[in-house]
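Hi there,

I know you've been waiting on this one. I reran it after we fixed the sequence typo, so this is the corrected version. Both the input and the resulting structure follow.
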Amino acid sequence: MVQKSTAWYMLFLSSLIIAIVSYIGESYWLHLVSKPIIAIALGGYFISKLRTWESEASTLVIVALIFSGLGGIFLILQEQVEFFFLLGAGAYIVTQLSYAWSFKKRLAENHQLHPSQIKKSLKFIIPIAIPSVAFVLYVSYTFKDFFLPVMIYALSLVFLLIMSALRYKLVSKQSFYYAFGGTFALILNFLIICSDFFANMVEVGEPVFIFLNAAGQWMLIKGIYLDLNEEADLSK
């Protein structure tokens, strides 16, 4: 018998493939349906992997995935109404803030941050945050019409980066590197989008954005449920 988590994971992979193929094949309605299914499948996968539902961090993950699904729909609909671009960007900002807040909740529930811990985390934050923000500032300043939404989006990712980096040495290596890797994938995705749409530096296309966003969120939720399950095992 196939485990529930395996079934949800297979649905995630299949919907991801369909979303990419339907975009390449210009199948509008299939693309519109498959993108939110990615978020639904990730939610089912996350819930099926949890051993207990006692932390607010779990609820925040589901909130993140709900807004991720909405963001995917809004960005597809922007082809019909331009205002949906702002709604889509806003939904993804809520997604990133929800993941970041789930990390903050876990740190508040189980760990006490000391200055030495913050210092350890800087080696993960500085090499990514400073060049990324500098690049985004350059791009958003060049295209002033997008300055405010682009900077808010960038700052939400920086907050996510900081919160995920602060988990260093406070959770297992596996949990930390999955979540941090997922954060890096979302940042990389955003930088490529800026390069593609705003600066015309590269042309990679929507399939790369779909993949990086989905892969990044899968890594994030894996890092989170590993941490939650480790705590559940210790409390037995």
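Quick highlight: The mean pLDDT is 85.

Best,
R. S.
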